[in-house]
Protein: Topoisomerase 6 subunit A/Spo11 TOPRIM domain-containing protein
Organism: Podarcis muralis
Amino acid sequence: MKNKDTVVIFTCLPFRLSIPKTALIPLTKHDQSKLDSLNTRPYIAYQSAWKKELDIMATCKMKAEIQALTYFSSDYLSRVYLPNKLQFGGWI
């Protein structure tokens, strides 16, 4: 999957789910540029949870793509993650 098509899960999720560090991917220059751009957008200042996620990503310089959830099982995304997001809310 090319970088522009990548879905990145929230930064804190890999830590909460104990996804191994080997499943994390270093930020590319393009990722860092996007991160810097996002941090300049005015609405980010009003979204403390989003700002926290961006700060964590900037500090650890790593990302977890949605495919990292297959660490648990091949159907974890469709069986657990997405149904919970849809039922209990939160960003997908």
Observations:
- Residues 11 and 56 are 7 Å apart (CA to CA).
- The chain has a mean pLDDT of 78.
- The chain has one domain: 3-88.
